[in-house]
Amino acid sequence: MERIDRDTALKFFKDSDLLDLGEHADNIRKKLHSDGIVTFIVDRNINYTNVCVNKCKFCAFYRDEDSPDAYLLDKDEIFKKIDETIALGGTQILLQGGIHPDLGIDYYTGLLKSIKNRYSINVHGFSPPEIYYLADRHHLTIKETLVMLRHAGLDSIPGGGAEILSDRVREILSPKKIKSSQWLRVMEEAHKIGMRTTATMMFGSVEEPEDIIEHLEAIRNLQDRTGGFTAFIPWSFQPGNTELSQIGGATAVDYLRVLALSRIYLDNVKSIQASWVTQGLKLAQVALRFGADDFGSTMIEENVVRAAGVSYLVSKEDIIEAIKSAGFKAAQRDTYYNILKEF
């Protein structure tokens, strides 16, 4: 498969017919996943706190520390959520929160150790902004912070906090959050110590097509160096209840165009995930013909997108049926894309 450059990608994105772009992406998907299997994982998002100092304009989830809606889950509440996840066949929890000013490294390592002492479950947690904040707060290197978290029980890292890896865009959306280079540095250091991570992109806010290409280029370049990304997950900005609610957000056509371009451009990332959480089941099915090979998570619980007024609830059976009725074989996977069970 011939690698495309930024100029070609921009031309594809701006000028290509949507169905032509989708067919191109679908052909690449067929080469990489010739068995016709579409995977998913059974897991739960546990957002341990909604307190966050970053106050990103696109986020409807965060609260100030003194807000009546602010919360910090105690361990018993987290354990109850993990118990429910395991009872439903879950193999992973996604543990993420805001940047809480009162939580130091001891809170995170203590929480991880307590989870691992009780459960055999993959902890996919603490995205780059959380990790960078801890390193900075405690005067540690990124590597030292990651090693401490891994030793305590952190298995892998989600791609949250990436949004668009263009500092021009970040200055508008999230001026208090880490810069693009800092996000990439956390991921590179994680990959270097053997931790696998995902990469994400939130589009449909204030970015231009050139910013989307810049983001994809940054991910591809890092993957060339480390090979540590298991998957790429593009998802569309949900404007409801945010400071940017006047922005219309991405259309279904925009979503499919970005998804297809991601599959074409990221020739070194094996899996591209469809986002039923933001798009719904029907469009996620269409996404399987626009380059996606993974249906993401059953997401027993999800709070961040829901805070923006978007809430699609689906069961494991719904996902299996959606995959099959789109003409694919459904399989449950683990965090590392190993097949656990075919349906």
Shape, per Cα inertia axes: globular
Assess the beta-strand content as a share of residues: 15-25%
Count of β-strands: 11
CATH superfamily: Aldolase class I
* Uncertain runs: 307-311
Question: Helix fraction?
Answer: 40-55%
Can you give the mean pLDDT?
91
Radius of gyration: 19 Å
Secondary-structure content class: alpha/beta
The name of the CATH topology is: TIM Barrel
Description:
The protein is an alpha/beta fold. It has one domain (6-41, 124-342): TIM Barrel (Alpha-Beta Barrel). It is built from 14 helices and 11 strands. It has helices at 6-15, 18-32, 75-87, 105-118, 128-137, 142-152, 167-173, 180-192, 209-226, 252-265, 276-279, 281-287, 304-307, 316-325; strands spanning 37-41, 43-47, 92-96, 122-125, 156-157, 196-203, 229-236, 271-272, 294-297, 329-333, 339-342. The chain has a 4-stranded mixed beta sheet. Strands 5-6-7-8 form a 4-stranded parallel beta sheet. Strands 2-3-4 form a 3-stranded parallel beta sheet, covered by helices on one side. Helix 10 (252-265) links the parallel strand 7 and strand 8 (271-272). The longest helix is centred in the middle third of the chain and has 18 residues, at 209-226. The two termini are 31 Å apart. The model is unreliable at 307-311 (pLDDT under 50).
Quickly list its features:
343 residues; alpha/beta; TIM Barrel; four-stranded parallel sheet; 14 helices; 44% helix; 15% strand
Question: What does this entry show, briefly?
Answer:
The chain has helices spanning 6-15, 18-32, 75-87, 105-118, 128-137, 142-152, 167-173, 180-192, 209-226, 252-265, 276-279, 281-287, 304-307, 316-325, and strands at 37-41, 43-47, 92-96, 122-125, 156-157, 196-203, 229-236, 271-272, 294-297, 329-333, 339-342.
